[in-house]
Amino acid sequence: MESIEELKVHYRWTAEDEENLRKVSKYFEEHAEEFMDEFYRYLENFPDTSKYLPSQEVRKRHREKVKDWFISLFSSRYDASYLRRLYRIGETHVKIGLPPHYVNASMNFVREYIGKKLTELYGCSEERDRILSSVNKALDLNLDVMVSSFREEELKLYLGSGKYTRVVIETLRRISWFFDAFIVLSLTVVGMFLIYWVVYEILLAFSGTYTLEKLGISILGSLLVLYAVSELLYEEIKHIRGGSISISVFVGVALAAIIRKILIVSLTPEKVYELITLGFVVLALGLVYLIVRKVETKT
């Protein structure tokens, strides 16, 4: 990790920047509670906030810590002690498993809030622009140090492994990438085939070979499966980018396949018992889908 002096050079941090922050330190200390109220309303936008802030006691401690950090952003000396404090904040995020994305997004909210309050205080003036420039440097420096904790923890884990362990890790990582690429390619091919099949069925409607009722239901069923495949493709791309895969999507694919089957069977009146059986299957899958979606929303 870079020293505070190196960071100051990289961000062109000067004594004037610290003075600019101190000019508004009293103002933002007075608005710290307002900031925390807006910040917690912002956190509710994240679907898994309750995972990292599970109880009122934890939220109370977290609120005080964030409030202290917000006040110190303007009032602290940017020295080695402040750097260690930022690094400890980052380590805490690593310990609770908080994704770096949340830190980046939250810092953007802080930036917008401070910019709005500075405009209320100074209007659109050169003074506001000077102070806002210093605030942006401070926020970027803070974010740099906090996020570096994630990188360093990952590096420690990697370097702490033996030589052969690292070889295995790299090999598995490449195999995993191959599997992901193969899945994306396969889903793309299946999607293209389904598009071709839907177009083919539409052309059959003009040929008069089949009844419009049968073709219409068949096309609708094919579109359902195509939609399910597109959802799977989206989830796999999200997984490659580092996101988590939603289990409910797989249940949705099963539902689409069964519904397509029901549409086709419904054209044959004598298959009433098969239709009833498929109806119960859809009901069961629907309940599973609701349960899985509820669990995923909570987590």
Written overview of the protein:
This protein has helices at residues 4-10, 15-23, 25-30, 32-43, 49-52, 56-75, 80-95, 100-122, 126-159, 163-207, 212-240, 247-265, 272-298. Helix 4 packs across helix 6, helix 7 (80-95) packs across helix 9 (126-159) and helix 8 runs antiparallel to helix 9 (126-159). The mean pLDDT is 81. It folds into two domains: 4-160, Orthogonal Bundle (Globin-like); 164-298, no CATH class. It contains 13 helices and no strands. It is elongated and about 85 Å long. Helix content is 84%, strand content 0%. It is an all-alpha fold and 299 residues long.
Q: Mind sketching the topology for me?
A:
Elements: H1 4-10, H2 15-23, H3 25-30, H4 32-43, H5 49-52, H6 56-75, H7 80-95, H8 100-122, H9 126-159, H10 163-207, H11 212-240, H12 247-265, H13 272-298
Helix pairs in contact: 2-9, 4-6, 4-8, 7-9, 8-9, 10-11, 11-12, 12-13
C-alpha-based Rg, rounded? 28 Å
Q: What's the name of the CATH homologous superfamily of the largest domain?
A: Globins
- Strand % is under 5%
Structural class: mainly alpha
Give the CA-CA distance, first to last residue. 33 Å
Helices and strands, in N-to-C order? HHHHHHHHHHHHH
Name the poorly predicted regions: none
- Summed up, the domain count is 2
The assembly state of the depicted protein chains is single chain
Q: Count of helical segments?
A: 13
Categorize the overall geometry: elongated
- E-strand count: 0
CATH class of the largest domain: Mainly Alpha
CATH architecture of the largest domain: Orthogonal Bundle
Residue-averaged pLDDT: 81
The helix content, as a percent range, equals over 70%
Using the coordinates shown, work out and report the CATH topology of the largest domain.
Globin-like
- Biggest sheet statistics: none
